[in-house]
Design brief:
It contains 7 helices and 59 strands. By secondary structure, the chain is mostly beta strands.
Amino acid sequence: MKRNSFSLQSYRTVAVLCIGAIGLWAYSARPLVDPGGLPDENRFTKVVLAEKLNEPLEMAILPDERVLFIERHGDVRLYSPTTKQLRTIATIPVSTKYKDKEGHESEAEDGLLGINIDPNFEKNHWIYLYYSPAGNESKNSLTRYELRGDELILSSKKVLLDVPVQRESCCHTGGSIDWDRDGNLYLSTGDNTSPRATLYAPIDERPDRSPWDAQKSSSNTNDLRGKILRIHPEADGTYTIPEGNLFPKGTDPSDRPKTRPEIYTMGHRNPYRISVDKRTGYVYWGDVGPDAGTDSVGVGPTAEDEYNQAKKPGNFGWPYFVGDNKAYNDVDFVTNKSGALFDPAHPFNDSPNNTGMRDLPPAQPALISYPATDSKKFPIMGSGGRSAMAGPVYYKDDFRNAKRPFPDYYNGKVFLFEWMRDMILAVSFNEKGGMDKIERFLPNMPFSHPIDMAFGPNGDLYVLEYGTGWFLKNDDSRLVKIEFNAGNRKPNVQVAANQKAGAVPLKVNLSAEGTKDFDGDALTYQWKIVSRVGGQPTILNEPNPTFTFQKPGQYKAILTVTDAHGLKDSREIDIMAGNQPPQVALNLVKGNKSFYFPGQPIAYQVNVTDKEDGSLANGRIQAKQVLVQVNAQNEATTQNSTEAGHKFSEATYLSTGRVLMEKSDCKACHFTDKKSVGPSFTDVAKRYKGDANAVASLSNKIIKGGGGVWGDAAMTAHPQLGLPDAGEIVKYILTLSDKKVASPSLPTQGMYTPDKNEKGDLVLQASYKDKGANGLPPQTNEQVLVLRNPLVALGTSNSQSKGITLFKMGGQPHPLVIVMAPDTYVQFNQLDLTGIRSMAFAVAAPKAQLNAVGGRIEVRMDSPTGQLLGQTDDILPTDSKDPAAMFQPGVVKASITPATGLHNLYFVFKNEKAGKAPLFVPITVQFSN
């Protein structure tokens, strides 16, 4: 069972930079989905199994549905579907850094790279790992271990194959493992060549420039790099060479030093994930291409990524060709003169770094190739960053006894995917292996950089999501599975009430609006009004009834919806009648509503009214009964970020989860640090602190509802929330376990002056707990305002920015924004521009490492082409060759046209002469009044 490919364009650019599940639901007597037709997308459900992983790369699904996967820094992890727990079962010592010639250390692509299980795993319990061993020896090793139960027996290690590599200024590792039906193991290896010398063909033949010459590896018949290898592992930990590889193993001994018999295909740049069709023996992979944004006369073509198919051994052309055999010129890096175009029918390797044959097999064109811009030949690929990867081939006969097999529609199709573009493709082939059709698979299902895929024994498609940032432990990094439901589908129930608490008589409008049945069945509705103290329930048989609660008490309104085949589902709402919740208003008297400014006073006023208790205004509620607090949140270390000596704290952008929570009904039952109908958020955070599955389980509970953990209180379902939004809310709640002790209460009206050295956000909170009424417990209400630090890291935007890349550098608290082309932007939603007169940007433009061309930053309001509020002077690239100074920024300022109120703000990056070249790295923006 195999997955796919991670030839991250991310990693390509890194090198340039320097270096409730639906489950089965029910199979009723009704007809199943048309086996030959395209199934409805709503028949597929994405189930999150684990998240917040640390650079997951490849996985293998065990016969009992346990999932083994690896993380680049060396952890081998095991997910159990029985316990629903994720464990680290071993840590392999690996190398993840490299040093350049000056001795500067940077993050490399090396580490724990590939994993798979033996075809006879149920008998021998063998797993295979491919990794970069820690130590001074520059090599990557293919090893075998025994997995005994849930324990990886480290003493059972057998080294099958070592691949000598360079760890200087490098990159492009490959590392994917798969098998054919004959028990042959396939291993992909990257070209191990730095792309920093050129955006085109890396064929630098000057002395001591081997790290920049892919002719030493990909086009070298006597080198294992830039290849897909095929070997047959033996029981004693050695391997033999199967018949039919690219270079016959029976070659005359005098010629054998010029070839390696392990090579099946050659001419690859970074085939990061591969997949072998167990029926046909065809090999599929995605190859991440180079970085050139335009054709260059006398040098070579625009860069493209490739999806490839090998029906037999062959040479796929790198570094002499890209895409469908578009040729590079034979450039002389000594004289910088252009030679002839390479000939795909007769490629040759005359590099002094070549130890293999001069004359090479003919180059094979790509199956699918596409640039960063729109592809005329393959428009389905869209545009953007590029990282082609290959996934599994689905055959229905392999899943005859599976619980949830995919529909017959996908029989024989190959699943390819795009890491950067977050898309999965289903590709159809004819009987001769020719490509018939390419289509999107689940185009409306969101993914966060899928890096591996595999079908499990139950028929589910597992997807490993790397997450959006490179070299990061991403919050959106996940292990998920996609389940298919071929039978009758439950009604999708939605419930709402116009009010959930109030004085009696309490008139409540209940609503089932949004409830639907994907199968088009007729639906029946039943609301049941139940008192928590017992008694006869009230039944209402209509979808949107109105009910008046006459007696004080705590109630549940339970909606059950049943389809024509008897399949049903329920949702419920808690209602408290007899005590009107207090109303709390916390207002800023004047000034900016998004930012505070250190050392400048903030004027505020609190008003409280309560139907039973009175109000602050009439004196029945005393000011001392109202809690008013201001607390700092998300403090970060101040860092020197400009050569001019300016200091910028990396203030954290307001949590998405907090924003979503403020807009939801969460606080009808929960408060930050006090128990209400449900537990306080602080108590929830403490209970689940350290639980790796908390985000997945609690997100599911928010959406589906549930109870039993905190006593009798049950959580109302929130099916209107999507899984990503529910996850953001949970992530925010879990941060509350580490909050500092709250500050003393402030007056209900006054001025608060933040410290001149304040870092991070300021959280202003006003709350009032009423006295209860009619035997009902007190209710607390609060209002929270969050004011941001005026220094904002651009890498903390949680909006839909365009055309930028996030990259985590060592020592940086937030990802850096890499502007890869002009007319791209970073977006921040709903910022108050009142009083903002200028903005100062800390920007780095490292020409030597990034090939940056510079440009300017426009500040626009409401859209990327909206009103121009201001712009910086030109940002000029610097030519420092010191990697330590790579991101030492300068400061550029923009005067801002006065504006008021909340607006979406766009920082648009411009350079009319840049073509597709990288511009610069904007780090922070300082808002000033």
